[in-house]
Amino acid sequence: MQVIVNGERREIAAQTVDALLSELDYEGTHVAIALNFDVLPKSRWADTTLKSGDEIEIITPRQGG
After folding, report:
1. Which of 53, 60, 47, 61 is nearest to 5 (CA)?
2. In 3, 15, 17, 63, which residue has its Cα 20 to 30 A from 40's Cα atom?
3. pLDDT at 65 (0 to 100)
4. C-beta separation of 37 from 55 below 8 A
5. Where in the chain are the domains?
6. Looking at beta carbons, which pairs linking 42-51 to residues 24 or more positions away fall under 8 Å?
7. Which residues form the signal peptide (predicted)?
8. CATH for 2-59?
9. Does 24 score more than 90 pLDDT?
């Protein structure tokens, strides 16, 4: 299915948010997820089903000064 990840249209096989993170090699990293402009708690990643056309933002923390 096609979704938009961080502003880029992508073809994915994943059906859930946590599966998407695994597919995109984000496993084990600290990230926040917004699905269709709503922040999604980590406790819901495994049971949140993705649909074609969804917009997903994967936000990674940055260290800076």
Report:
1. 53
2. 63
3. 62
4. yes
5. 2-59
6. 44/17, 45/16, 45/17, 45/18, 45/21, 46/16, 46/17, 46/18, 47/16, 48/16, 48/17, 49/15, 49/16, 50/1, 50/3, 50/12, 50/14, 50/15, 50/16, 50/17, 50/20, 51/1
7. none
8. 3.10.20.30
9. yes
Specify burial of residue 56 (Cβ count, 10 A radius: 0-12, 13-18, 19+): buried
CB 58 within 8 A of CB 21: yes
The pair of structure tokens assigned to 60 is: 């990674």
Confidence of residue 59 (pLDDT cuts 50, 70, 90): very high
Please name the amino acid found at residue 35. L
Whether 11 shows a pLDDT value over 70: the answer reads yes
